[in-house]
Every structure is written in structure tokens, then in C-alpha cells.
Amino acid sequence: MGSSAEIPRAPENVLFIEDMTDKQLAETLKLPSGLTNLGNTCYMNATLQCLRSMPELHQSLNRFTGGINTGYPAKNLTASLRDLFQQLNQTTEGYSPYVFLQMLRTAFPQFAQQNNNGFMQQDAEESPEEEPVITKDVFTKLNCFISERRSVNYSKYTRISRLPEYLTVQFVRFFWKSLIRKKVKVLRRVKFPLDFDLTDICTDELKKKLLPVRDRLVELEKEKLEAKEIGYDSKIEEIKKLVDPELAADFGANTTGLYELCAVLTHTGRYVDSGHYIGWVRKDDSPDDWIKYDDDKVSIVKSEEILKLDGGGT
């Protein structure tokens, strides 16, 4: 016996994420492309991915009309960065930043230094031993102090008079240890937030300009949490009116005193001259998701994983 109905089709093959290749995973999850490691270039790759998260940088680079081979290393570097970002936006596969690397080494020869193993690893904070400082003083008598010297405590205060739109904060984990004449890494854990209020360490003059809009934003955030409202769209005009006119006219300045973490660059490993660098960038369309750039390996992680990047033994 048979049926006049259409013979059911066989189910399509199901491909699980765990079985996907890097290319299939990137296309399915719409992940941006990674950068191929060209030999100790993981710090450069991670830094480029962090810089890539700045839309203003893309806009400025796209306005640059120069090409490569201009005879000016700085212009060649700018053109190669522009071309690299454009090429990264057109592919989901790992991309080789070879041209940019060549332009970087030409403009900054220190990145072309080599040892017996090839090109040397470049780090976030180079820590060479400080050169001795020699000065000459003119004097007509030699003082011999016969009383005890007194100890004096000094206090130093630093205040910020202008905040940039993008703030770079570096935990200086590499330093020169003179006792052993070697660079070492500080392994202690340092906690950091996803949101950062910097108004407390600004000058009184700048603080006066920042506080009206900062305080209103804090209030709106509290209202959103209590009422479970979404976004500040209906309050944008109100917030704009609170921004100080001088700060509004200062292109590239922060007008609120508030920062939201958008990128992190980490070093894994206990030693300065080895280890590996990874870039982590917040996803624009999903604030709780972050993109992990491990050279050409790209994946998605949650915000809670970012907060675990506080250092320690790795």
C-alpha cells in the first residue's frame, strides 16, 4: 500500500558549533576576522583589534587619501592601517597584516629588532635600565654636615584638567629589577570595573562642568534599574542641554566624566620576554558579549569572563 502524499524529505544534516571550522563559526556567528601571527606579533595584533573598536578612528583613516610608497614612513603607516581595517571588514577569515607590519618596522625600527630566534617580542611596556644622569655643579666651598639629617614626608597631588573621549589605562606589570638586572612581571591581581567614574580626580574647575550631566546620567541609570526601562533614547535631548558648552566645543573631550570599558589587552605568562597577548573587545550590538581576539582565533565570551582578567599567576 502506498500514499499519494509527497514523500517526506530526509532531514538536513545538523552541524553543531563544536564541529564547525573557524571559518564556519565566524560566518554563523558573524564574528569579525582575526589577524595571523607573523612571528611574535601577538601584541601588535591584539592592539590593532582594540583600536579597531573606535569608529572615530575608522572615519579619520577613511578621510586619508594617501597611498603606500610615498617616501614618508608615517604616511605609509597611516595608509597601511586604513587599508588593513578596510580589508578586515570584507572577510571573516584570518587575515595577514604583513604590509602593515612592514610599514610599522620601517617607521619604528625598534619593532624590527632581532635575536637568535628571529624577531624579538615587543611588549606593552618596554623597561630598559635607566641611563645614569651626570650633572655639574659650581661651588666654592665643601660643606660637611655634622648633625643628623632630618626625614621629611612630602605629599603629591595630581588632578586631571581634561578628559579624553577614549581613556587608556595601563597596569604597569613590567619593571626593571635592578638587584637582578632583569625585567620582571608583577603578578598581583588588580580588579577593574566595566564602568568607571573619573570625576573625583579631576580639577575643581573641570568637575564643576562635568557634575550636572554625570549626576543626571547616574539618576537615569538608577531609574532604569528600578523601572526596568530600556535605554536613554527619550532623554538624549535633556542630557545634551546639560553638557557644558566649553566641553561640547572641545572635540575629542569627555563631557560626562563617565567611561564604559570597550577593550582590554592582556598578557598571559609569568615572564616578560615570553607569553602571549590577547585582545578583548566589547560587541556593539550586545553589551554583555565580548569578542576574544587570539590572533586569528576569534570567539565570543561574556562580561563575567572579562572581569576575571585581573592578573595573578598568568
Helices and strands in order, then pairings?
Layout (H helix, E strand, L loop, with lengths): L21 H8 L12 H10 L3 H9 L9 H16 L9 H10 L6 E2 L2 E2 L54 E4 L4 E4 L9 E3 L6 H24 L8 H7 L2 H5 L8 E3 L2 E6 L7 E7 L6 E6 L2 E6 H4 L8
Antiparallel strand pairs: 1-2, 3-4, 5-6, 7-8, 8-9, 9-10
Helix pairs in contact: 4-5
Q: What is the string of helix and strand elements?
A: HHHHHEEEEEHHHEEEEEH
Quaternary state of this entry equals single chain
Count of strand segments: 10
The coarse silhouette is globular
Q: Unreliable runs, pLDDT <50, ≥5 residues?
A: none
Give the averaged pLDDT, no decimals: 84
Rg for CA atoms:
26 Å
Q: Would you give an account of this structure?
A:
With 314 residues, the protein is α+β, with helices and mostly antiparallel strands. The protein is 30% helix and 14% strand. It has 9 helices and 10 strands. The protein has helices at 22-29, 42-51, 55-63, 73-88, 98-107, 204-227, 236-242, 245-249, 303-306, and strands at 114-115, 118-119, 174-177, 182-185, 195-197, 258-260, 263-268, 276-282, 289-294, 297-302. Strands 7-8-9-10 form a 4-stranded antiparallel β-sheet. A hairpin with a 4-residue loop joins strand 3 (174-177) and strand 4. Helix 4 (73-88) packs antiparallel against helix 5 (98-107).
Brief summary:
With 314 residues, the protein is an alpha+beta fold. Helix content is 30%, strand content 14%. It has a 4-stranded antiparallel β-sheet. Strands 1-2 form a two-stranded antiparallel sheet.
Identify the notable features of this structure and list them briefly.
314 residues; alpha+beta; 10 strands
